[in-house]
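User: I'm preparing a small set of examples for a lab meeting where we compare how different chains pack in three dimensions. I only have the primary sequence for this one, and I'd like the structure in token form so I can line it up with the others. Please keep the answer compact; I'll paste it straight into my notes.
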Amino acid sequence: MAVTLKPAERILAGYALVVLTVSLARVPEYPAARWAVAAHAGVLLLLFLFVVRDRTPEFGRLGWLRPVAPILLLLALYGSLDLLSGFGARPTHDALVLRWERQLFGGEPGREWWQAYPSRLWSTVLHAAYLSYYVIVPAPVALFLLRGQSRHRDRAMVAILAAFVACYLCFVFFPVAGPYYEYPRPAAWFVDNWAARAVYGVLSGGSSYGAAFPSSHVAAAWAAAFACWWGSRKAAAVLTVAAALLTVSVVYCQMHYAIDALAGLAVALVATAIAWWSYPNERRNARDN
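Assistant: Understood. Below is the structure token output for the 289-residue chain.
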């Protein structure tokens, strides 16, 4: 039986192989990177089990998990970024990115925007929009899974996964700390609301140093919104508005440089194109639902 991987699984396998190689090279400098080696090797093993499950009855029960496994596995690998950077020991490229920021925007919106337009209301609204990321990203896959629209589900998975992988590879090879680490925290009144407290609570326990450029929040949110148009225009319209607010929020709330957000949008466009071309025999039927 030939070994076959679905498009999303090929993307994940390629990513795991690249990062496995990088992890092996960085173990002498950062011994904790050996855990990244184990994690990425484990992902490759799991992908192999999905491929052979039809030949091996005892693995057959894994079949229900296969459609969503790539994104779950990739998100589980996010913590490996800290292992590969020596928990912030590697130099970052913030000075270069900020130079691009000033050339493109004439200043540093990630630092200046909230100060130029201070608002308790907008702080609450846009910090809440930042949290909406955790709803936006899985929404199209969950929607198409519930509807039984397997083709749309798989293409949405490819779009979101490709966006994440592109961002993660940038984090590995071109780390940028971003405003969350580089700038002083906003004024106390600005973050004195439930949404801001929730955001900072999440980031304090799950943020990786050097993972700012491109913004994976923006990239994955827009990839999810774009992918949703293939199967549900109404849901896509809602996700598009949510993704737009999230894009504004990452800059206004001083989580990303503006150029991080712009780069994230560019990544989403490329990732969506990759997803579209990953299923050449089904493009004609893209609007059948």
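A couple of notes for your slides: The mean pLDDT is 90. The CA atoms of residues 223 and 268 lie 5 Å apart.

User: Perfect, thanks.
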